[in-house]
Write a structure and sequence with these properties.
Blueprint: H1 2-38, H2 45-49, H3 64-71, H4 79-93, H5 101-117
Helix pairs in contact: 3-5, 4-5
Length: 119
């Protein structure tokens, strides 16, 4: 029984020393983390405007440019490319798979527009 008390005491002492070491190292860790945060790249409005992604919402009326952006094709794409792109985009954004019904309606609208106005 006394051996168990000695082992318990030594274990508590080890935990105490480890805790003391961690507490003493905290200022250095905090300083390192703060320096790392300062060195992160800055994202401002200019870098977002120059990104490869389309900035803004949907137009009031569907047009060829917007339909092509939604489907991820060129505005002069043929009906086969429109159909293939529609399948890929809708597979990811379908409401039955957790997608938005609004986005699905815009994808359908884009497909219909491009099929109607393509060669």
């Amino acid at each position: 029984m006394s051996a168990g008390l000695i082992v318990t005491g030594l274990g508590l002492a080890a935990v105490g020393f480890a805790g003391r070491y961690i507490v003493r190292q905290m200022p250095q860790v905090t300083r390192t983390v703060n320096e790392a945060i300062k060195n992160l790249p800055k994202f401002d409005a200019d870098s977002v405007a120059n990104s490869k992604y389309y900035k803004g919402g949907f137009d009031a009326k569907m047009n060829r440019r917007e339909a092509a952006l939604i489907l991820g094709i060129s505005p002069s794409a043929n009906k086969t490319k429109v159909k293939d792109a529609f399948k890929k985009v809708m597979a990811v954004n379908h409401p039955d798979r957790g997608g938005s019904p609004y986005l699905a309606s815009k994808i359908n609208e884009a497909k219909d527009f491009m099929e109607k106005h393509s060669n």
